[in-house]
Amino acid sequence: MQRNHSIDTIRGALLLIMTINHFIWITVGWAGIQLITLQPFGQVGAAEGFILVSGLMVGLIYTGADAASNKKKLLTRAKQLYIYHLIAILAVLTIAYCFISFSQPANTFYSELFPGLIGNTVPTLVASFTLLHKPPYFDILPMYVAFLLISPFVISQLKKKRIALVITTSVLLWLGSRYFDLSTLLTLYFAEGAINTGYFSWLAWQLIFVVGICLGYYSRHQPINWFKHPAITFLVSIIALVLFVFQRNIFAQYGIHQGTLYELADKPLLGWLRIFNLFLLVYLFGYIIHRWSQALTFKPLALLGRHSLYVFSWHYVVIFSVAPIALGFFDFQPNITVCLVIVSLLIFVPALIRERNKSPKLVVEKESN
């Protein structure tokens, strides 16, 4: 099926935003640019959008007639991402030890970030290989691997016209996430700092991935005209605008501000307001793409989006390599803005390499035709 470059652009933008935010959080904690990159439209961040769009792409791409082939591709993809995740951990660990050998502040920095990996390396690595332990900021790929593994089952149920069962089960798991804490159970069996089950609850976050699969599946097989009634689009726009205004703390004197909104939009457990806000934005961006299919296309970001999972794996290596330099653990300390530019440019490396390796094949195919 024909690739939509606007969706690739959105995915690329989400990748860039996550990279910027992660780099800032591990270095200076907060920077002015996060007025734009950190939940700019309401109680929704880049991670939620990335997971939903990833589910959407699964529903669009892997729901063809050949179920066996699609299942094999999904499982192969999950295995590939699992390997990338482990390589990223090993690469960051290697980088950390290199910096530590030259700088005592770097030792403190990495030990505080990765107490298990630095202080108790072998058991923590073993736990990482089983995906029980996820170092800080390494949450999304393991979660995505798990979601890819359940995708063939979800797709099979959609093909049997059991969408009500799929959504009901997913919602019940989301509700159940409030009562099941894997971290509390596992910490009894591991040394302090050796286990970190991650920031996100998989039971909660599967909801937006599953909804993404459903949206992608029906977009491909039974398209629904979501934008048939202008009044609905207008209402969604108004509600999204209200949440945007509330997010700006304009009504803080009345007790409506980011803090009170977050109580309803808890991120690790996906509060109902976060999900509601996310779907409002998905609807509005979908409307823009529906009306003007390439309106959101921006080639550099679309490039990132086309190779999103390679870029996401690589971004760990970039941010944890540049962070000690940005923090001045050596004889020089570039301005944080300079470091942000460097980090933002470096995440394009795997996308550019893959495009370059792909180009000769395309040329051969064109010449043979």
Automatic annotation (TrEMBL):
The keyword Transmembrane helix applies. The chain crosses the membrane at residues 12-37, 49-69, 81-102, 137-156, 163-180, 200-219, 231-251, 271-289, 309-329, 335-353. InterPro entries: UCP028704_OpgC (IPR014550). Keywords: Membrane, Transmembrane, Transmembrane helix. Signal peptide: none annotated. The keyword Transmembrane helix applies. PANTHER family: BLL4819 PROTEIN (PTHR38592:SF3). This is OpgC domain-containing protein. It comes from Vibrio gallaecicus. The gene is opgC.
